[in-house]
From TrEMBL:
TM region positions: 12-33, 61-82, 89-114, 134-158, 194-218, 238-258
ABC transmembrane type-1 domain sequence ranges: 57-259
CDD domains associated with the record: TM_PBP2
Keyword Secreted recorded: no
An example Gene Ontology CC term for this record: plasma membrane
Domain of life: Bacteria
Protein name from the UniProt record: ABC transporter permease
Membrane topology field: Multi-pass membrane protein
Amino acid sequence: MEARARNLYLVPYVLWIVLFVIAPILLIAYYSFFNVEGQFTFENYAKFFTPVYLRMTLSSFWYAFLITLFSLLVAYPTAYLLTKTKHKALWLLLIILPSWINLLLKAYAFIGLFGTYGFVNTILEVTGIGKKQILFTDFSFVFVSVYIFIPFMILPVYNALEKMNPTLIDAARDLGASPWMTFRRVVFPLTIDGVKAGCMAVFIPALSLFMITRLIAGNRVITLGTAIEQHFLVTQDWGMGATIAVFLIIAMAILMLLTGNRKRGLIDIVKR
């Protein structure tokens, strides 16, 4: 009876996965084998391995790497300071609040800040530096992307730091370890799972950005997400758009599998 009840509880989850995860992936894979005229073909997959799309893939991974790296560099010390402050719940709420705001509204807010007559250029002009072209640059794209994704990096790192036993840090100090050595040999290895979770939470969605590339980067940055949007909404070449999406899904799955394998390896190392 308990086994039957457990199986009944699993039905909604299985249906959800089948309808909203497996079925859409199969549908995308199906469309990837058809061209604009609706004819079955492998031409889309051959076209993906041309220099144009390969450069686009490398560009997507590069920008996703930069966004993840800068997010981590900002999020780790921020999460560490949060564990040392009072009213942690309030500070966490203030960090999470921006993620509740619509992405489009945040993008337009940065257009106003970084524009030629925006707040940032006004400050630069007052200080004597002069107006600069901030909007529609790689800097603005990475900056806005980091701002958007940083809560997803802070939370897992903060949880990992909170779970860490503080007596281990005291023990390292008693043994004569410097602050940097304590961080490198004790703190960071013990919070690596949170770092990896945060990196995956940022890197994977950063691979498929498209709205920010248009509004903030002004199409100077072309990613796989931008190409998918272009093929589905502009050129109406659903087959090519689906093909790019298939490779994007495969890349994300490989990254998740590699992260899982490394996680188990690190746990084994710590146990040794």
